[in-house]
Amino acid sequence: MERRPTIVDVAREAGVSKSTVSLVLQQSPLVREEKRVLVREAMDKLGYVYNRSAANLRSANVGLIGLVINDLRNPFFTEFATSLQMALSARGYATVLANTDEDPAIQAQVVSAIIEHGVSALIISPAYGEESATFDAIARANIPTMQVLRKVDPRVETFPFAAPDYLSGSRLAAEHLVRGGAKRVAFVGGLEGRAVAQERMSGYFEVMAEAGIEPFVLSGRASRAFGHEAAAILTRDHPDIDAAICFSDLVALGLLSGCARIGRKVGEDFRIVGFDDIEECAQVYPPLTSVRCDIAGFGKDVASTVLDWLEDSQAPISEHRTPVELIVRDSSNGGLHA
What we know:
Domain HTH lacI-type: 5-59
Order of helices and strands: HHHHEHEHEHEEHEHEHEHEEHEEH
Pfam families: LacI, Peripla_BP_3
Structural class: alpha/beta
Protein name: LacI family transcriptional regulator
Helix content: 40-55%
Largest sheet: 6 strands, parallel
Keywords: DNA-binding, Repressor, Transcription, Transcription regulation
């Protein structure tokens, strides 16, 4: 996406000062008609649109960034949003934050409202479904926009994408369990057909193929409730499965509590690895092994990338993955070391 033309671009094209352009935009009678015509012609040629609310924000020395999150109830997304907002604030930018609750209709509504507020850029962790209603509106507004954590619009040249390296994360988790002696490993959680679920499974599938272990996927919502339910399903219907990689830490925490309820000893009889490494992983019993995405650091990186795009016209690369690591704790170690 090309950057939006600025008042400086209009002044250069019209051959006048930036102050003259500002006076024209404010409909000041101090500007002679011939210069007013030059400025208007330059605006038309460049496609410059005067946004009064954004101009008011600039006059207060504050920029406005839109941040749209698919599920703020999930601590993973909350930590990302908090880290990002604080990093933007440190650079003098305010944040308009909206939660879509995984509803594409709400997403389209809040994105439209945020655009009307004259944001300088958008950062969106999108909901799935009816993506065009959201992203076509953003494209028409010509606002610099990054997709983060999930990629739902394939136009990454227009909407660059950044996320942790999910494939490597699930590979690390699967290798750890196989190396520790797991005979049959399940992947638990994540809805079928969702790209992010496929990415988080991909390394798992690779390692199972290499180890000659038949994969088993138990799909479901990324929630504690599903994880809790999965403990009984795996124990009752698939007693040969002795380890699980979970789509997210919420699923893993639910699986952990479900195993406790039915008396299955996690870390000995059954091993569990989560994904995201939210704060609670180190505080539960037994402590939960998880793929750390450094989501706080990721939020800071995204803020820096977007502001470089705005302030220095350094457009992001179309797709960027950040490194992950496996944090081994008692839920998977079984007395062994990674």
